[in-house]
Amino acid sequence: QVQLVESGGELVQAGGSLRLSCAASGFTFDISIMGWFRRAPGKEREFVAAISGSGYSTSYADSVKGRFTVDRDNRRNTVYLQMNSLKPEDTAVYYCAANALGRWNSDSYRYWGQGTQVTVSS
């Protein structure tokens, strides 16, 4: 049974930092492209970042480049999203996704977590 469990979301002030985690199980983690997406209130879900199975390749949305970093620990089957210089517009539910079936920045992932709420106050 595949499980993706996100954690780390909370209320933070603008300019602050958070580190999200996604613990994975039930599939071959170290060959799976992992992605982070978010859905802000009233908006469509959007791509945030993705990382290859080895961790050597990453991709970011323009809106988070230079502020967010995605990385992974294949020994712990966990992918992370380090978020710095947070802005109120980063407020959203953040989702972890696994096994991209198409482009990394599309929502073609096979598995999805339940999400974790990040709220950035101004």
The largest β sheet comes out as:
7 strands, mixed
* Cα radius of gyration in angstroms: 13 Å
Gap between N and C termini, in Å?
A: 40 Å
Weakly predicted, low-confidence segments: none
The portion of residues assigned to helices is under 10%
Secondary structure tally: strands? 11
Morphology? globular
Q: What is the average per-residue confidence, as pLDDT, rounded to a whole number? A: 96
User: How many helical stretches?
Assistant: 0
Which class of secondary structure composition applies to the elements?
mainly beta
What series of H and E elements makes up the topology?
Answer: EEEEEEEEEEE
Percent strand equals over 45%
Provide the fold topology.
Elements: E1 3-7, E2 11-13, E3 18-25, E4 34-39, E5 45-51, E6 58-60, E7 68-73, E8 78-83, E9 92-100, E10 109-112, E11 116-121
Main features:
122 residues, mainly beta, four-stranded antiparallel β-sheet, 11 strands, 0% helix, globular
Written description of the protein model:
With 122 residues, this protein is an all-beta fold. Helix content is 0%, strand content 52%. The protein is built from no helices and 11 strands. Strands 2, 4, 5, 6, 9, 10 and 11 form a 7-stranded mixed sheet that branches. The chain has a 4-stranded antiparallel sheet with strand order 1-3-8-7, with no helix packed on it. A hairpin with a 4-residue loop joins strand 7 (68-73) and strand 8. The mean pLDDT is 96.
